[in-house]
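Dear colleague,

Thank you for sharing your sequence with our group. We've completed the structure prediction you requested, and as agreed, I am returning the results in plain text so they can be pasted directly into your records. Please verify that the sequence below matches your submission; if there's any discrepancy, let me know and we will rerun it promptly.
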Amino acid sequence: MVEVRRVLDAIGATLLTVVRAGADRAVRDVVIVEPGHEDEIRAGDLVLGVGVTVHAARELVAVAARSRAAAVLLKPPYATEPAVTKAAETGGVTLVEVRQQVSWAQLVWLLRSVLDAGDVYHTRDTGVFHDLFALADAVAAVVDAPVTIEDAHSRVLAYSARQDRADPARLSTIIGRRVPDDVLHQFRAKGVFRKLGKGTEPVFVPGQPDGTLPRLIVPIRAGEELLGSIWA
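Please find the predicted structure tokens below.
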């Protein structure tokens, strides 16, 4: 089984923020728990608190701690409520805030993908993926903008820790681990992928009326073969 910290690292700070780090327990399963069903929590569960109030969130965290759950994940503002954080601190359980834009269904899919793999595909502490995430962070620092690194099929390989100015298109890309179809269509219509496929120069795309911010895209090639691209 995979420890909770590695699971959270795999999803990334763009989507999840650790409010209070507790014991680094092995994760057994991902469970959605609504108020009144706290007795369903088991040791090692990643508990997603859906439809909670402040009181219900505090109770959920307290029960999760007693049950030795791996972590409790809550949407704003509940994860940072003093009563909730106090319960997490007292119980020694990890408390995590989920970015508001992330749907519970998407999060369940992402978490279970990590668990099913039996290891963390996108972890920052081993091998090539460490290098890719480090590269994304380095590029983000230079260009002062959020960055993703994608393969030739528009699948996300890595992204910068800094995503504070990410627009909805970029967030959807990170959440889904690939560029959504509507976003692909938008960039394809502007000839972006044709230029990436044939050239070696960076491609600039102005901001769009729908709120999509400007993009600077750099192709990554090995000779004539397009391996992927860096999007800033």
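Summary note from our side: Helices lie at 4-11, 54-66, 82-91, 104-117, 127-143, 168-176, 181-189, 192-198.

Kind regards,
the structure core
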